[in-house]
Amino acid sequence: MNVSLSDEYLSKQKLLILAPHADDEAFGCAGTIAKIKNAGGKVYVMVLTVGDLDHYNSEYGHVSGSTRAKEFDDVANYLKIDDYEIVFHDTEKHMRLDSMPRRDLIHIIEKSSKLALDRISPTMVAIPAISYNQDHVAVFYAGFTACRAHDPSVKSYPQTVLAYDNPTLSWNVDHDKFRPNFYIDISNYLDNKIKALSLHKTQLRHSPHHLSIENMEYLARVRGHEISVEAAEGYMCYRFIL
């Protein structure tokens, strides 16, 4: 069997994705998840919160937290994610992570949750890019701090730290906040990404909305064309150690 260098590298990785909400893991990383799993690596997803929410949408106006959790469970099973958790299952915290003291959020990510860095020692961590969404900003800064370097003889830390893409990033006061410099070719896994997104059906919108399946395929192909492949997922790399 012909194994590429990238597959050999990915087969040794243990990726932890920090998702502010159920669906962020699929919008940003579903193709990467499928590629790492196919290569033999491990993937874990920590969703910080799900809860009831009213949408500006006639088809799914009110969406319950239990519905969001079930959709995420279906995605996790479809992508064969090794383990996953939802930290907060309550509407009071949903879309209000920015109201939590950052130190408390760091403690959850670093130490106390089932998939905390101290418990699973991931080699790679993917955090949400900074956007207008206050929960994404809160998880970015808490995750970034939790991934800080340490004396490896005392405490392990991830060798690769990435911020992942999101279709809402075009509405940003500072467009330089997300400039991809790390790409994963998902040409063979675009169908997996589209299928995973389709399972988050209450979060999708009809084309030409930026949260439509059509737009997500366009975005994956644009990221791919930036590196001359059929489809890719783009990341900002904050640390990469070999």
Features:
single chain, 242 residues, alpha/beta, Rossmann fold, 7-stranded mixed β-sheet, two-stranded antiparallel sheet, 9 strands, 20% strand, globular
Q: Helix and strand layout, with pairings?
A:
Layout: H1 5-10, E1 14-21, H2 24-39, E2 42-49, E3 53-54, E4 62-63, H3 65-78, E5 83-88, H4 102-112, H5 117-120, E6 124-128, H6 134-146, E7 160-164, E8 182-185, H7 190-199, H8 213-226, E9 232-240
Concise structural overview:
With 242 residues, the protein is of the alpha/beta class. The chain has helices at 5-10, 24-39, 65-78, 102-112, 117-120, 134-146, 190-199, 213-226, and strands at residues 14-21, 42-49, 53-54, 62-63, 83-88, 124-128, 160-164, 182-185, 232-240.
